[in-house]
Amino acid sequence: MCGRTFDGRTCRKRGSHLCVPRADHAQAFAEEICVHTKDRWARRPFILAEWQREEIVRPLFGEVRWDDEAAHYVRRYRIAWIEIARKNGKSELLAFVALYLLVGDGVEGAEIYGAAKDRAQAAKVFDVEARMVALSPVLSKRLVVKDHVKRIVDEKTSSFYEVIAADATGNLGHNPSGVIFDEVLTQPDGRLWDALRTGMGTRAEPLMVAATTAGDTGSAFAKAEHDECLKIQADPARAPHRFVYIRALSRDADPFDESLWHLANPALGDFLSVQSLRDEALEARNDPSKENSWRQFRCNQWVGQSHRWMPMHLYALCVGTATDSARWLREQHARKPAWGGLDLASKMDLTAWCVAVPDGIDGHPSLLWRFWLPEGALAFLDERNEGKFSRWVEQGWLRVTDGDVIDYESIYDDLAEDGALLRIADISYDEWSGEPARERIQKRTGAPMYPVQQTYRGMTPGMTEIMARTKARTWSHHGNPIASWCFDNVEVLHPPGDPDLLRPSKPERGKVGLRIDAVPAASMALAGLALRGTKAKKPNRMMVLG
């Protein structure tokens, strides 16, 4: 029998279960001992919101399991991952958890550490704790706050809470019973996490609580933990010792649909202002540079780039005549003049080809793409994109070639087919990757080839043309799903001091599943159309842009 007693109630359950006295004890500590520290709630009891109480605090501290080594029941969870949008009360919730582990857990010699990227970040939670101690009639008598060293001491049990720097090699000697890990997304790697986690091995009921907002794909360690936690959330048996609480809008949800905001913001309408989110949403909708921050910090979505370029709500308005058949779309543009752009990737990755047809079926330029991928790369990209690539193969948007490297003959054949169907005026191509194939492509298509350097000056004309046409709604992408995915992924870079120049920043292909190849291919095609589409046809010649 569990046997835990609190407030006159004894738990008589056996096996893994929710121990009500334990859950009641944690809740009572929050609501009767702790207090709010800011604004109009300051000094009031820290009454937990329903989602904090029922979805985090009670299960986190109440779930128990039998431990054969200890010969008694212990907390089920040793690691907790809490991921919610910003300004949903993470800091005060973490402050309560830290103080509960320090005082409420009844552990002699407890060592609680507040960790983050640096001491300044970790001190944010400490400052809330220190203020909570100062304002609490009970805690202020029990604990000693040493602000100059960011330390809180419980002399009665020889326990302490301490902020530590994010230098894992300097923290291997700690023996934490509790760890508060704030904004894990800022961690450059997993060294500090591993150092503190392995240090908990001798404790009977250790608890590491990590709280964060969604990051971007550059947050490699945090993204890996996030992905693992999603799997645990779907299948708790995968890691029964890990508690996961993730609230976010799905990637395909409309980030500006107010009815969905509560999914990432459980405090909305409680202590988080709805009007403040409305104001931020309006700014993000009107300024593409702010949309990524809105998605990341308010919708709690892991974003594909740090500096978003394409306003996808405007991109969606450029669909034109939508179709689910790439072949039908090509046939509708048969015998029309076209300008090509080829982003010939490495032999083991995605290759994109785009033709810009000025006399498109919607009365303005249509962009038509082809994509190729070696069979050996399919599983890698599928695993990181929820099986999208296999679906695109089935739907006819993507051609997979046999083997681990791209079959260039397949590319030559498809380009020759387009050359016979369309009147391709010329082809712009990536000078670095396309030069070895230039002669074969030129021979098979009969079109002159123009190399384009993938530099700021080489890529700016086409990128600027795409954006101008997107804002004016004077081109059609016809709903090509791979192109839409690439445009949603793309980030752009600007050289220092010259914001008018830009180029797409390609993701690290071996580490992440994002690709943007449709964008440079489209950029080169539209640049070719803009530069040479209105000029009389000239003899075949080479021209280097850049």
TrEMBL record:
Residues 242-524 form the Terminase large subunit-like endonuclease domain. One of its GO terms (molecular function) is endonuclease activity. This is Terminase. It holds the Pfam family TerL_nuclease. It comes from the Bacteria. Residues 73-219 form the Terminase large subunit-like ATPase domain. Signal peptide: none annotated. PANTHER family: PROTEIN YMFN, PTHR41287.
